[in-house]
Amino acid sequence: MGLNDNNQFILKVSGLKTHFFTSEGVAKAVDGVDFKVKKGEVLGLVGESGCGKSVTALSIMQLVASPPGKIVGGKVEFMGEDLLGLNFQKTRKLRGQKISMIFQDPLTSLNPVLKVGYQLSEVFHYHKGFNWKQSLEESARMLKVTDMPSPEERVKNFPHEMSGGMRQRAMIAMALSCEPDLLIADEPSTALDVTVQAQVLKLMKTLCRERETAVLLITHDMGVVANMCNRVAVMYAGRIVESTDIFTLFKNPAHPYTRGLLRSLPRLGAKRDRLDSIEGQPPQLNRLPAGCAFEPRCEYAKQRCKQEPPGITHLRGEHDVRCYYPIQGANNE
What we know:
The chain is 32% helix and 23% strand. By secondary structure, the chain is an alpha/beta fold. The longest helix has 18 residues, at 194-211.
C-alpha cells in the first residue's frame, strides 16, 4: 500500500452508506458520505447527536453491529487500498497497528474485569510480537508518554480505579501504541472537566504532530474544532452538508445548519443578549423527508428544497456545500 503521490490523502471515503434494518424500517445512518484526510492533518467531523458521526467511524473500522447494521455501498480507501474489500484477518491486522480508534466512553470501552496494563499489553503482544513482560514494560512507557501519573503503578489498576482523565489517557496510549498512520477520535473529551479536557486535547495534538498521524476527530464541540482541526466536515442526517478549512467555516459558513451551529456558541463581544438556537428536531433516519433533510428547520427554505435533495455546490477554493441556496459572505454574528 502507498499514498497517492498527487494529493497525499491517507484516507478517502467515497459514497459510504451504512443502513440499519429494523422492524420500523431502514434507518439511513450514513447515506453517501464523502471526505478525505491527508497525512498529518486533523479533520473534524461535527454535528448534532444522532447525525451519523460515530457510525461513520465504526464503518471505517468495520465495527458496525450486524444485524441490524450493514455497509451497503461506497468505498473506504486507506493508503490506496479499499478496506471494505479486505477479509477479516487483514482488517484485524490493520486495526490498532495502522488505524486506531479512541472510543467515546473509556469506562465502557475498557474491559472492567481486566487490568489496564493487560489490555494495553495485548496491543504490543498481538501486533509487535513482544512477550508479556516486554509488553507490560511498553505499556507503562506509553502511559508515561501520555503524562499518566505513576504509570508503573497504574498498569496494575482496573478501569474503575482510575479517574475519567486517567482512563482517557489509557485509551490514547492504547490507540497510539503502534504509532498508527490514522487515528479516529470519537468525542475524546466527552465527560471530562474543562481542565482535563484541555490537557487531553493538547496531548493528542502534540503526539500527532510529532508522529505526523492523520486524525479524524469526531465531536459536537465547535470550541474543540477551532482548537484542533485543519479542516471540517459538517454532518446532518447521515450526510456531509458542508466541508471547508477551519478559517472559512468560522468566518463564512455557507450552509444554514452550519450557521445555526455557530450562532448558538457564546462569543466575547457579541451584540446579542441571548444565544440563538436551531428550532425543531433532526429527522428520524428511517423517515427522511423527500427533499433536503434540513428543510423543516431552515429559515431560508423554499419550495424547491421540499422536492428533491440538493447536490454538492462548489464554492470558492475547497469549500463545498450541500444546499440549493448557500449563504454567500455570511458570518456567525
